[in-house]
Amino acid sequence: MTLKPSPEKLLSLGMSFWNAKALLTAVELGAFDALCEAPADCETLRERLGLHPRSARDFFDALVALKLLEREEGVYRNTAESDFFLVRGKPSYVGGLLEMANARLYESWGHLSEALKTGKRQSENKEEGDLFAALYADPARLRGFLAAMSGVSAGAANAIADKFPWSRYKSFVDIGAAQGMVPATIARAHPHLTGGGFDLPQVKPIFEEFVAAHRLADRLRFYAGDFFADPLPAADVLIMGHILHDWDLAQKRTLLKKAYDALPSGGALIVYEALIDDDRRDNAFGLLMSLNMLIETAGGFDYTGADCQGWMKEAGFAETRVEHLVGPDAMVVGIKRG
Q1: Each residue of 129-183: pLDDT tens digit?
Q2: How far apart, in whole angstroms, are the C-alpha atoms of residue 28 and residue 68?
Q3: Which of 72, 191, 203, 313 is disulfide-compatible with 199, CB 3.0–4.6 A?
């Protein structure tokens, strides 16, 4: 007997913004921070967060149903996952990305139809030129953006520290380092390495604060510059994470050639992103990230591992490989010979 099709999957997907907004709002309100202090019943948690009595219980129980909180005998507590990743101040906090999603991306994605029809970005200040110039000019927004980059890079940073053959190298620099999540993670895992992060001058105090908090200031330094206008720092390994997808094809090729020129013979370039699978069927996150680049940037787009390998070879890299990292993220490694 042929089963009749069900609309359940379509309706669930179409209304999934409910789930997203519940999580983003919980992060915004500090629900996980409040429960890290101590578990609480409904009324105590409501008062801690300053919520109206009308729907607080529904909100908390929705978080329970979403497996973001636990409730036992009327007392709420964080799940192990929420406590590890969503409590501000913990080194494992990834909520910076969710904070940015709530403050910026959620509204901008409401204009996806317009972006697809016009090919133009739809984020805030969309009529005022470069998004990054606007972000970097506002200290508060810059801190939020850099914290978000740490959140999106944390898992990949640990995987790169584990999977790349760091014993063959002595130094590395992360290009577009943001707060310094990737350099700090790699340096902690491999005490023989020295290195640092390259980014615009406005990032320096934030990077140095982050590195000092991880007690790595003696091994990691900040390199100030514009990666289009200035030479890249010399090191055995250069890293570009969530960088290339911000730019159009000509700019991607420019950055890869600059990395090739900066590396010594035998040096390596690591490019990591939510790489789209070569068949463009499975990594929905990578494809949606590319749509996010449509929303956020003038010409950026995501790409497949095969695309990146081709651009690397055009830049001069003799050997390339693609390796999965974690979740939707993978890295493309290029080796310079001669």
Answers
A1: 666 767 777 777 777 777 877 877 888 999 999 999 999 999 999 999 999 999 9
A2: 14
A3: 203
Q: Which domains does the chain have, with CATH numbers?
A: 17-85 (1.10.10.10), 95-335 (3.40.50.150)
242 catalytic? Reply is no
Q: Which residues contact 61 (CB under 8 A, 6 or more apart)?
A: 71
State how far the Cα of 207 lies from the Cα of 197, in Å rounded to an integer.
8
What would the two tokens of residue 241 be?
Answer: 């994470």
* Residues 274, 259 contacting (CB under 8 angstroms): no
Q: What's the gap between Cα 315 and its chain centre?
A: 26
The two three-digit tokens of residue 201, written as one number: 């001058």
For residues 333 and 265, the answer to whether their CB atoms sit within 8 Å is: no
Q: One-letter amino acid identity for 145?
A: F
Asked whether 241 and 273 are in contact (CB, 8 A), the reply is yes
Of residues 190, 242, 245, 324, which has the active-site annotation?
245
